Amino acid sequence: MVNRNRNLAMIEEAKLDEKGRINVGQEARILYGDRFYVVKLSGGILLIPKPKDPVTELRKWGKKIGLDKQTARDTTMLAVDQANKEVEERANRRQKDMR
Question: pTM for the whole thing?
Fold first, then answer.
């Protein structure tokens, strides 16, 4: 059974078949569609429903966080800053692991 309130988490058990497929059930397909992004996490996987129009969906998310008010240069600088931060964090982790 799928909870129709998207704000509440619903956990169901699913089993892979002999071909490695997973059946999410008819109710889940009706509610979320039949295409998902599979996000591989350290402790498992996460299925995220793929929007019918991903570009429009990204634009909506961008507006929600204010990216529509920024110039392309501002957005590029944010991306570069974030990339540099991630590189620095990884380097710090490697140095810590080497000790």
Answer: 0.49
